[in-house]
Write a structure and sequence with these properties.
Strand order of the largest sheet: 5-2-1-6-7-8
Number of helices: 18
Shape: elongated
InterPro entries: CoA-transferase_III_domain, CoA-Trfase_fam_III, CoA-Trfase_III_dom3_sf, CoA-Trfase_III_dom_1_sf
Number of strands: 13
Keywords: Transferase
GO molecular function, one term: CoA-transferase activity
Distance between the termini: 26 Å
Largest sheet: 6 strands, parallel
Protein name: CaiB/BaiF CoA-transferase family protein
Pfam families: CoA_transf_3
CATH topology of the largest domain: Rossmann fold
CATH class of the largest domain: Alpha Beta
Amino acid sequence: MSGALSHIRVLDLSRVLAGPWAGQIFGDLGAEVIKVERPGSGDDTRHWGPPYIKDAEGNDSREAAYFQSANRNKQSLTLDFTQPEGQRLVRELVAQCDVLLENFKVGGLAAYGLDYESLKAINPRLIYCSITGFGQTGPYAKRAGYDFMIQGLGGLMSLTGRAEGEEGAGPMKVGVALTDILTGLYATVGVLAALNQREQSGVGQHLDVALLDVQVACLANQAMNYLTTGASPRRLGNAHPNIVPYQDFPSADGNFILAVGNDGQFRKFCEVAGIENLADDPRFVTNKVRVAHRAELIPLLRQATVFKTTAQWIELLEKAGVPCGPINDLQQVFADPQVQARGLRLDLPNALGSSTPQVASPLRLSATPVAYRSAPPLLGQHTDTLLQRLLGMSETQIAELREAGVI
């Protein structure tokens, strides 16, 4: 194995998306990632289909596409740690691991002696990362938390969707489980910080990462807009609360995005669009007054943009140095020449005798590049080899564990 984290071994007890996303990042960076799953069923997302990955004959397998998004570069070990023998095996594995990822309810693993306090006694160098909906403390700590719920409770949905008074107005979730993804990223950053600190102290620590905390932290400028004024920002559809014009506009054959970031770019846009008079209009001459007169400006711009196609606008505005772009569906995304040039789609051979499409990591390291060693594993694909290699178990011992339902 090679990679920036090839010296690190991760025990991934997490399921669904936030934890597995962090685990996949570690795997991409070279860490050995052991995904512990329930015998017979595994990670819930294995069954979140259709769609499913095709087998060698082109038929749907039982491997859901959802699972494939967050579990490459991992080995699957089926293990029932509700049984005492399963708990013993987890402890033996922990003794040989650097990081443990888990997203059980607060206190859920303590019943099995697999909480941080219990496991740090076995391995004081362990970095133990707990991912929950609401964190280890507070009045909501015991609650289950899911991305959709957190997008609502954490304020994101109050900012997303068409403005009040428009057709289709109302709160809207983001089209992907963004809070889960961001939580996986924050968990990864936290673990890397803890690993770095361990180099100085020699001991590990416990990370308490919560979806709600991450969601609120990522409100960014909108949070500051509220904290500065005391007024809750309102939904603006695709418009920007602080910059105008910065939204979608109709073209002759669809829609495109205009992202004017300063007064000079606004003037250039007006020149290209043949509406130079608007650049000198006292209501629109600076961003501050454009924000104040948004309702007057946007209809005027929409009247101008419908006379050219999206491709024409992009060609003209790029030459003028005005940020703009199309609104692509995913077929158009993966057909885009820049996406193809960056190699963002790849295919990995899998244990079904076919290949699994993947979206490449955005991390580009010059000395220790990301390596795509293996497709997401089948359930329990590596159980025997891991128990033999790491715990020195014989085929007979493994057979007895399987007969007892431990693996």
